[in-house]
Amino acid sequence: MFTIKKKNAILTINTLNKKLPVNRHTLMGIITRIEEKIADLVEQPFRQGRHLDLVSVEITLKRLMERHRKPVFSRTYVFPSYIIILDENIFTENEPFLTRFKEHLKSNIENWLHEKGYEAPHPVNIFFRKDALTGRPFEVRIFKESSETQPYLLHMESGVLFSLNLPVTIIGRGKDCRIFLSDATVSRKHAQIVYKNGKYFMTDLESINGTRINQKRISTSRLHDGDLIQFGDVVCLYREMLG
């Protein structure tokens, strides 16, 4: 057992009847490092993310940020948006955790910018997408919307991009859905997007909580660039290439 007493700017630790003077800032630094170590041990399985090495993703992202930062004025930089492309199998295994991955990455990036003494006037945007990658689990690229060749849905919370490259795309909570949304308010087969005569149409599949486009509940409706689509409580943004 020990007690800590405040005496001016010095903390005195009483243990085994011996008084050891400890500088307050030194003690707080020790406590902080202990807390960080405990957090690191607790989060280690999460960071590995079922075969997704989030530490490697973070290192790759930081290197890309260093190469492509644009100075505004002294120590203030503008960073582009980034997209993390995951191999299809890795994506499927980790899809339920991508919102947490994104939050974890953004928090670490903010801390890293602070440690580097960098100022960023805007938060760094991070998106995810799955693709067939050969011999590597992920890629990190600068995200340029103009380079997207297919219309897509953007999951507003997790930052996942779902390309619409099939004549019919089923959306729902069922594992067999092309766009899988892990949320209790989403039905197993909630809605579908159909490509017909150069246009995309959204149809609700008699879901329990309904499908809304720009806050209006629909049965079938044509999609337009910039539409906000709500499946239960899940909100997605529809984007199409107009060029």
Précis, in short:
The chain is of the alpha+beta class and 243 residues long. It has helices at 24-48, 54-68, 88-94, 98-116, and strands at residues 3-7, 10-15, 18-23, 70-73, 76-78, 82-87, 126-131, 138-142, 152-155, 161-163, 168-172, 179-180, 191-196, 199-204, 211-213, 216-218, 220-222, 228-231, 234-239.
Description:
Strands 10-9-19-18-15-16 form a 6-stranded antiparallel beta sheet, with no helix packed on it. Strands 12-11-13-14-17 form a 5-stranded mixed beta sheet, with no helix packed on it. A 3-stranded antiparallel beta sheet has the order 1-2-3. With 243 residues, the chain is α+β, with helices and mostly antiparallel strands. The protein has helices at 24-48, 54-68, 88-94, 98-116; strands spanning 3-7, 10-15, 18-23, 70-73, 76-78, 82-87, 126-131, 138-142, 152-155, 161-163, 168-172, 179-180, 191-196, 199-204, 211-213, 216-218, 220-222, 228-231, 234-239. The chain is 27% helix and 35% strand. It has 3 domains: 1-41; 54-142, hypothetical protein PF0899 fold, CATH 3.30.2320; 152-239, Tumour Suppressor Smad4 (Sandwich), CATH 2.60.200.20. The protein has 4 helices and 19 strands.
Question: Features of this protein?
Answer:
single chain; 243 residues; hypothetical protein PF0899 fold; Tumour Suppressor Smad4; 3 domains; five-stranded mixed β-sheet; 35% strand
* Low-pLDDT ranges: 1-17, 41-50
What separation lies between the terminal Cα atoms?
71 Å
Strand and helix order = EEEHHEEEHHEEEEEEEEEEEEE
Radius of gyration: 24 Å
Spatial shape: elongated
The strand line-up of the biggest sheet is 10-9-19-18-15-16
Domains counted in the coordinates: how many? Answer: 3
Number of strands: 19
**Helix count from the secondary structure assignment:** 4
CATH fold category name of the largest domain: hypothetical protein PF0899 fold
- Secondary-structure arrangement, i.e. CATH architecture of the largest domain: 2-Layer Sandwich
According to CATH, what is the class of the largest domain?
Alpha Beta
Strand composition percent: 35-45%
